[in-house]
Amino acid sequence: MEAVDRLIHLLEQAAARGAELAVFPEMALTTFFPRWNLNDDAEIAGYYESQFPGPQTQLLCDAARKLKTGFALGYSESVEEGGRVRRFNTMALVGQDGELIGRYRKMHIPGSESPEEGTTVHLERRYFEPGNLGFPVFAYRGVRVGLALCNDRRWPETWRMLCLNGAQVVLVGYNTPVLLDEAPALAHLRMFHNHLPMQAGAYQNTVWIAASAKAGLEEGQALLGGSCIIAPSGEIASLASSVGDEVITHRADLDLIATCQRVNFDFARYRRPSEYALISERAGPLE
Ligand code: CDT
Predict the structure, then answer these.
(1) Among 35, 149, 201, 218, which lies 20 to 30 A Cα-Cα from 282?
(2) What does the alpha-carbon distance between residue 102 and residue 9 come to, in Å, rounded to a whole number?
(3) Ligand 1, closest atom to CA 149?
(4) Vertex 198 angle, CA 192 and 202, to 5°
(5) Ligand 1, atom 3: closest residue by C-alpha
């Protein structure tokens, strides 16, 4: 599979730069097929992995073991659960030993189930159901790592839940089209709206974020790119500069998390969740 070869090559470059953990985009093994209104079941089924690692992704896991560099990989998952086939937009975390540590299934599935006239086709809801694994946090070499996929990054709940679950580092994979017909007035803000929620999420939840995007033209559609590494201070520590295959790296200072917590976000000291509930009860139901 050409995609796996590309990913292995990128992992080798990351390892050569001293990276101990890498993140690849959402749906990194295939094209971003939800841009198409597909009706052929056999064609659709071909985009999903029914096992991980499978024969091809095992090669990537073998490379991780050889390079001692773990990775997170977005892929389309098909699984038999509760007596039926279920399809999720998934990210797997693989350790330095090449073994699967755990997986996350995308919670916020955007777009629609069928094409609506006048809008860019984004049919994720036709091909995936929302994730059913919550926001898990995994131990990776003693560091607590959470995962998120694309539209998740725009939602404060993602960052807050991962933070409350103890994440120190969050790995994100995404595919964002540059053009969305339904919102021309926002077109010039695409990159701003990409980084804004991640910078705010990192800052307000004192986590490091590494976000990996598909970039450039894929099947004629321009994808946004803008891969980045963001510090718990909210600053972008490293930013992709091209729309080609590119590796960005940064040595994350995990002590910065405690510093940022001390300055503003000492949750145990200042956060008051029991009071927040009381206030909303007093205000009465919103609907
Ligand atoms: N893949 C993904 O989640 N993309 C969305 C764009 C969809 S908007 C209909 C994103 O939030 O970037």
Answers:
(1) 201
(2) 23
(3) 3
(4) 140
(5) 151
Q: pLDDT per position in the chain (287 positions), as tens?
A: 799 999 999 999 999 999 999 999 999 999 999 999 999 999 999 999 999 999 999 999 999 999 999 999 999 999 999 999 999 999 999 999 999 999 999 999 999 998 876 566 899 999 999 999 999 999 999 999 999 999 999 999 999 999 999 999 999 999 999 987 777 888 899 999 999 999 999 999 999 999 999 999 999 999 999 999 999 999 999 999 999 999 999 999 999 999 999 999 999 999 999 999 876 666 666 55
- Annotated catalytic residue: which of 106, 124, 214, 228? 106
In three-state secondary structure terms, 3 is helix
- Whether 26 is catalytic: yes
Alpha helices by DSSP H, the chain: 2-16, 41-45, 57-67, 124-127, 156-164, 190-205, 255-263, 267-270, 273-283
**Ligand 1 — pocket residues by CB below 6 A?**
26, 110-111, 122, 150-151, 154, 174-176, 180
DSSP string, 133-162: S-S-EEEETTEEEEEEEGGGGG-HHHHHHH
Residue type, 178: V
Task: Report the atom number in ligand 1 closest to the C-alpha of 177.
Answer: 6
Tell me which residue has its CA closest to atom 4 in ligand 1: 176
d(CA 257, CA 265): 10
The backbone region for 136, taken as left when phi is positive above 0, alpha when psi lies in -120 to 50, beta otherwise, is beta
CATH superfamily of this structure's domain 2-283: Carbon-nitrogen hydrolase (3.60.110.10)
Q: How far is CA 117 from CA 114, 166, 181, 182, in A?
A: 10, 43, 10, 10
